[in-house]
Specification:
Elements lengths: L12 H12 L10 H19 L4 H14 L8 E2 L6 E2 L9 H19 L1 H13 L3 H18 L3 H19 L13 H18 L5 H12 L6 H26 L9 H13 L4 H23 L6 H14 L5 H5 L2 H22 L2 H12 L5 H14 L7 H18 L4 H14 L9 H6 L7 H29 L4
Amino acid sequence: MKTLEKVNYKGFILPVVIGAILWLLTPVRPGGLSVQAWEMFAIFVATIVGCITKPLPIGGTTLIGLIVTVLVGLAPVQNEVNPKTGAVNAGILSAFSNSASWLIAMAFIMAYGISKTGLGNRIAYWMIRRFGKRSIGIAYAITGLEIVLGALIPSNSARTGGVVWPVTESISKDYDSLPNDPSRKKIGAFLSFIAFHANVISTALFITGAAPNMVASQMAIQKGYTMSWISWFTAAIVPALIATIVIPLIIYKIFPPEIKETPDAKNWADEHLAEMGPVSKPEKIMSVVFLLAIILWALSGIFKIPQLDSTFVAFLAVGLLLITGVLTMQDALKQTGAWNILIWLSILVFMAGKLISFGFIDWFSKTIQTGLHGISWEIVLAVLVILMFYTHYFFASGTAHMTALYLPFLSVAVATGAPLALSAMLLAFTGAINASTTHYANGPASILATTGYIKQGEWWKFNFILGLVYLLIFGVIGTVWMKIIGMW
C-alpha cells in the first residue's frame, strides 16, 4: 500500500509565524518603505527561516516562498511591461534564467565524472604516495587533494563525503585509529580535523567552491560588482596559499596525532593504485575536459570574451563529456543536487532582486548609513566582517546565512564609503571561512564532526582558535593583497 512522503510540518510553524507577524505589521512599517517592499521583506524572511527549520528540503521551501510571492501579487508569472513607464516587472519564470544557477548545476554534472571515472580517488592515492611518510605529510596531502577537488567539484559536501572522508577514514583505520575509542587520537582525530579545514580553504579559493559563494556572486551583481572565476581566484590565491601552509601546522600543534611517522601510508597508496590499474581512457578525457574548462574560465575573466561566458563554458564541458561517452544523459538527469540548486538558488536570487526593485535594500543601507554617520568605512567594514563571521553560530546553512546578510551588509559597507570590490570579496570570503565555527556550520562539518573521531568540545574549542587565524589571514592579509593587485 502506497503511503505519503514524510513532511516536517513542525518546521513550517516558525517561518509562518514570523512571516505572518511581519505581514501584519505592514500598516506600521518604517517610514520610507512601500507596502510592496515590506510585504516582500516578510516573505523573504519567512523563506530564509524556512531554509533553517527545513519543513521541506531547501528547494521545496524556496518554491513555497515563490508561490506565495505570486499569490499575494508581488510578482507575475511572466514579465510584465508598464505601458506608461516601460518598466519591467520581472515574472517568476525569469528567475530560472539566472546564469549562476545554471553554471553550478552544470558543474555538479561535470563533477559526477570525477567519481564515475575514479579520477578523484586516483588523485588522492597519488598525493598520499608522494607526501605520506609522516602524519603532517598526509595532512598536507589531504589539504592538496581538497584544493584540487575544489576546482573540480562545486559541492563542498560532495568533496568531503564522496572522496576526502573515505580516504581519511581508510588511512585512520589502517593505523588502528578507531572512532569513539581512545585510539582515535592516534591519527584519526587529527586527519578528520585536517580534512574539514582543508574543505574550508578550498571553498574560499574558488567561486565554484560551494553554493554560498555563488549566492554572494549574484548578490554582488545587484550592487554592480561582477565576480568572475579568475577574479575570485586572483583575490583568494594569496590568503588561501598562506592558510594552506599555516592551518595544518597549527592543527598539528594544538591537536597533534600520537603517530608522527607513517611509512606504511605509501605502501597503502601503492596497493590502491595497483588495484585501479593504469589511468583509464575515461579518466584521461575527464582530466582534459576539466583542464579545458578551467583554462576557458580563466580566459573569459582576463579577456572578457563574450563567447566564453562562464556558464557557457560549463555547458560546453558537459557537452564534451556526453559526446565522448564519459557521461550519459541518464547520468546528468540523476544528479539531483544539480537540479535542486538550480531551483533554490534561482528563487533566492530572484527574491533578493525583488527586495532591491521595491526599494527595501536602498532604504536599509541609507538608514544604517545615517546611524553610522562619522564612523570611518574601515571600522564599519571590519565590524561587518566580524558580524558575518560570528553570526554563523546561529545558522545551520551557509546558503541561508549568505542570502540573509550578504546583500544588506554589502549595501551598508558601500554606503559608508567602503570600496565595492573590497567589500564584496571580504564578505564573500567570510561566508566561506565562517564554517570554522560549529559542528553544524555546513555539510562537511555535519559529516566530519559526527564520525566519532572528534568530540564536540574539541570541535568548538579548536575551531574558535582557528577562526581567529582565518579572520587574520583573509581579513588583514587578504585586504593588503587585494590592494597590491589593484582591486581597490
